[in-house]
Amino acid sequence: MNQSRFPHLIDLDNYPVSCWNRITDLSIDIKRNPHIYIGACSGKIMGTLFYEPSTRTQMSFQAAMLRLGGGIIGFDNPANSSVSKGESIKDTTKIASGYSDIIVMRHPLEGSVKAAAMTSDCPVINAGDGGHLHPTQTLTDLLTLRAEKGTLSGLTVGFCGDLKNGRTVHSLLKALSCYKNNKFVLISTNELKVPTYIKDRLSASNKEYTEASSLEEAIPMLDVLYMTRIQRERFGSPEEYEKQKHVFRLDGKKMKLAKKDMIVMHPLPRVDEISAEVDDDPRALYFKQANYGMYVRMSLILSVLNEDIKTKPLFTGKIYPDVYCRNPKCITASEPSLPHVFRNHGGVLECEYCDERLLLE
Ligand code: NCD
C-alpha cells in the first residue's frame, strides 16, 4: 500500500494520545492568549469540501483559519461544484489539494475521507464521514471535559440517543477508552445501539460499560451526560425514523435526578431531545462546548501546518482484491476503483475504510 506522508486526521487513532493532549493544551493557550496567534497561518490556504450540511464544524474551522490569518476556499453545497457533473472524490481531492495547504472534508459515505486522503497532496482532516467518525468533534469534547471536569479519567459517562449512527459518539467512546477508569452507560433503544466494533474496543481496553433503555434510571449515576439527536438522514425509510424519534428527552424534571456537578454535553444540532428549559441550568454546557470547538480547530490547524504531529500509517491492513465490504454506506461500494483493504483479526476481516466486519471464507 502506498502510505501517505501527511499527518491526516481521519480517526483520532491516527495520532498518539500524547498528541491529543498537546492539541487540547495548545487550544487552552490560544483561548487565553489569542493575540499571540494572529497571523500564525498567514499565507496558508484551507480547502473546505463539505458534501453534507454543517453549521458548527464548518464555521468553526473557517473562523479558526481566519483568526490565524489564513485564507479559505471550497464549497458547502456539492451541487455548485464539479461533483454535480459526476467527478469522483479522488479527482476533486487531487485538484483541491493542489490549491490548498490543508483540506477539511465532510461526506455522507463511511470511509470517504480516508479515500480522499489517499490521493491528496496535502493533509486531510475528517469533519465527519457518514455515521462513522468525527475526530475533530472529539477533540472539542476532550477539551470541554478537561476544562469543565478537570480530567479525562475516572468519569462515568452516559451516551444517550442514536448511538448507532452518531459518529460523534463512536469517536468519543474510542477516545475515552484510552484514559484510565472511565465507565460508560449506553442509553438507547434496541435498534440504535452502539456498533459491535466500538463495544469490542471498550472491552479490549478493559472499560466497564452497560447498556440501558431508561434515561431516568441512568442519570443519577452519571458525571457526564452526552445527548445526541436521532440521525434522520441515516435511516432507510421515514417510517423507521418515526418509530425512533421522541424516545429520549432531557427536561428539568430529569435534571433534578442528576448529580449537582453532572455536565450535559451535546455536539448539536439539537432537535427535541433536550427541552429549552435545560439551557438555563448551569450544568448545560453544549453552547460552551461549541465555542471550545473553534479553539481546538485553531490548535489542530496550527499543529498540522507546523508538522508538529507524529502520525501512524493510514492503512495497516492488506489488499484483498476479491473481497468486497458489505456495508452499502461504505465508500468502496460507490467508488469501485479503490483498493479493497482489510485488517485480518484471526479470520475476521475489518474494512479499513468503514470498520465493517466480515468472515473470511
Ligand atoms: C454532529 C455531526 O455532524 O455529526 N454535529 C457536529 O458536527 N457538531 C452531530 C449531528 O449532526 O447530530
From the structure above, extract its key features.
single chain; alpha/beta; 4-stranded parallel β-sheet; 5-stranded parallel β-sheet; 12 helices; 361 residues; 33% helix; binds N-carbamoyl-L-aspartate; 13 strands
Description:
The protein is of the alpha/beta class. Helices cover 33% and strands 16% of the residues. It has twelve helices and 13 strands. It has helices spanning 17-32, 56-67, 89-99, 112-119, 135-149, 167-176, 196-204, 215-218, 238-244, 252-255, 286-305, 331-334; strands spanning 45-50, 71-75, 102-107, 124-129, 156-160, 183-187, 208-212, 224-227, 263-265, 318-319, 341-345, 348-351, 357-359. The strands form three sheets. Strands 7-6-5-8-9 form a five-stranded parallel beta sheet. Helix 5 (135-149) packs across helix 6. The longest helix is centred in the C-terminal third of the chain and has 20 residues, at 286-305. The chain is globular and about 55 Å long. It starts with 16 loop residues before the first helix and ends with a strand. N-carbamoyl-L-aspartate binds next to helix 2 and helix 6.
Per-chain topology:
Elements: H1 17-32, E1 45-50, H2 56-67, E2 71-75, H3 89-99, E3 102-107, H4 112-119, E4 124-129, H5 135-149, E5 156-160, H6 167-176, E6 183-187, H7 196-204, E7 208-212, H8 215-218, E8 224-227, H9 238-244, H10 252-255, E9 263-265, H11 286-305, E10 318-319, H12 331-334, E11 341-345, E12 348-351, E13 357-359
Parallel strand pairs: 1-2, 1-3, 3-4, 5-6, 5-8, 6-7, 8-9
Antiparallel strand pairs: 10-11, 11-12, 12-13
Bound molecules: N-carbamoyl-L-aspartate.
